TrEMBL record:
Source species taxonomy: Bacteria, Pseudomonadati, Myxococcota, Myxococcia, Myxococcales
Keywords: Transcription, Transcription regulation
Stated name of the protein: MarR family transcriptional regulator
Source species of the chain: Pendulispora albinea
Entry keyword Zinc: no
Cross-referenced SUPFAM superfamilies: Winged helix' DNA-binding domain
């Protein structure tokens, strides 16, 4: 199934976090809550997510992946890894380790994914 880059990012985030509120999802993606809601509506129509009233706060909506959504999120992650590996294969062998080391250093400097969105 084809998903947009923003939908793929949304699925990945839900996959990593489990249930997440729409407002939290919007904040973590750096988009307006109304944009997040429209994005989620498309994913819900496609059967990739389900939305339910929050257990702690009925004003909030918890978003979860459906089994189909989980398969798509896993597929997107595998595709990203494959694409990255293909790009690395294009580099001269001597440069691959330097690029990988630099990316790991950058990832440590940025910090955990949940801190990036703050």
């Amino acid at each position: 199934m084809d998903v947009t880059p923003q939908q793929a990012e949304t699925l990945q985030l839900i996959f990593e976090r489990g249930a997440v509120s729409t407002s939290s999802l919007a904040e973590q993606l750096g988009i307006d809550p109304s944009t997040a809601s429209r994005n989620l509506s498309g994913l819900e129509r496609s059967g990739l997510i389900s939305r339910k009233k929050g257990a702690d706060d009925a004003r909030q909506t918890d978003v979860r992946l459906t089994p189909r959504g989980k398969r798509i999120a896993e597929s997107v992650a595998a595709g990203s890894s494959t694409s990255f590996a293909a790009v690395l294969e294009q580099l001269p062998r001597a440069d691959r380790q330097r690029v990988t080391d630099a990316l790991e250093l950058l990832a440590r400097a940025i910090g955990p994914a949940d801190e990036v969105s703050r």
